Amino acid sequence: MQRTIHSLLTTAARVYLRKIEVRGASQVPKVPAIYAGNHPSGLIDPIVVMSALPDKVFCSVAKASLFSAPVVSYLVKTMEAIPVAKADDGDVKLTPEERKTTNQQMFDTTKSRLVNGRNIVIFPEGTCHSTPTIKSLKIGTAKMAFEVALNNGPRIPIVPLGLSYSSPSGNEFRGSVLVDVGRPITLTDEQVIRYEEGDRGARYELCAELTEKIERRLRDCTIRVPNWIDQLESEKPSFERVVNDIDSTYRVVCSVGGKTFASSAAPLADVRSAPELKLEAAKVAFFSLNGASQSTKLAEIIDRDFVEQMHLARRIYKPHDVSLNLAQYASLTRNFMKIALLHVHSSRFQRIWTDLSDYREALKDLNITDKYVSSHSKGSDPLNERLDKLRTGAKRDVAKMAFFGPLSLVGTALHSPIIAVAFQAGQIMGVEKRTGDISVVATMRLLAAFVGTCLAYPTAAAAMTYLHGAASGIVTIPLLSLSAYAAIKYPVSSAVSSARGSWTLLTQKDSVDKLRDTRASLQHRIREWSDEHAPEPEMIGWWKDPNAGVERIRAKQKMFENHLLEQERIVKLGSFEEA
């Protein structure tokens, strides 16, 4: 049953997500390991990890409340997930002693599974969230590695995994995800000896040190906004909680050099928001001190929009006719963030940022994408251009659409009740009302669609058998599956969106031409600015020949990996000679 559920879940992930790409697969250890990832999308995250690394046998660590939740409990139990008792898990009431017992059982079980060849996937942030940041990690992952190593146990590597979805928390159907495998961390003999001989305080310090290292490696393999407090480190900021007794709220105030900067307000009872408010206050301080708060409104921008703005800058920077994979896109976006934060005080950067924001708003107003603006030459007739493309390069696609188009319409109609229920489940059960967090929207949608399909298909087959005989019942499920495939592969929404885009381009050609002029100007300025502030010499003029640039980066990465392998070989030889 476990294998069946595993296959169903990974298939569901492949259906829900158009693409799951893995970068750094060569760093995946051959031995059992603890895979520690960021947690942007609820139960989708462990399923993505299982799908990305199909050769590995995984079991995950999940909060105890999931083991009593409808439907989810069956899945986590069948997949032999390991419960962990959290102090802030409001759905499960445990005494401190019960929580201690449950967590000790968790450590014992993980040790047993790892020793027997299983891999553990864990999310050390301790909670899923839709903000593009890495929250402070819990020390449980580090403690797990130390506990396994006790009494001459194996040194289990900890592998950082960065999950970067193409939409916030992966809540877009047929989106994509990059699974970025970071450099593994393995305990040294010295660390294990210190842990074995240390008291409770010494062990905690060792776990905290290792957790800090895991967090650094995890930050290196995710697309995220920076830790705004770290950006202010040289200014020595201080923070305090300021209470407003009139409306029973509080704010976090950041003080830097005699100036104060406040976060938004939260109810007094909401103590869990304090870390986020602290980061918000630090962000306001960072941008304000760099003179980027008034004209650019950078201080008020939400973290997700900051990331989206970097993505847009990267798309404009890249030549339109060059295709990159997700890993290369991620590297470019990280480079843009790096140089943006270093030069946020520059008035030139702030002007580019403002113009980029205006361009982004204009795209929204016309309901078109940057891809549309860049793909159609100025003054050309989009429909004629498309017809030329269809005649020369897409005859096969037209033939496929001619076959699958009608089937897609039928599939969409037949599955519309399931689609509607799944969408509503995501909106009603997946959005956190107080904070607007959407990290479990995708989970709710996928679960609702999964349950709906499992109920609807057998019901439809039974109905057809009753009405038209056994033969009709037998072919019902394959036909429904084929129509679902057509609806997913050739969705009606894409055809409608494409037609709407062409109509917009025809009827508002002048507006699009103006946007194209704006884009060309932005592209020139972004490329010029990026070359001046390139983080590495290899990135200067990268846009002129991206393929050559990618090959240079790939060769450099290969040299680095070979260096690591050589160091590991030397260490192993040294250990062998010493033994």
Give a description of the structure.
The protein has 579 residues and is an alpha/beta fold. Helix content is 58%, strand content 10%. It is built from 20 helices and eleven strands. The strands form two sheets. Strands 1-7-6-2-5-3-4 form a seven-stranded mixed beta sheet, with helices on both faces. Strands 8, 9, 10 and 11 form a four-stranded antiparallel beta sheet that branches. Helix 12 packs antiparallel against helix 19 and helix 16 runs antiparallel to helix 17. About 1% of the residues have low confidence.
- Oligomerization state of this entry? single chain
- Shape descriptor: globular
- Total number of strands: 11
* Separation of the first and last Cα atoms: 45 Å
User: In DSSP terms, counting alpha (H) and pi (I) runs of 4 or more, how many helices?
Assistant: 20
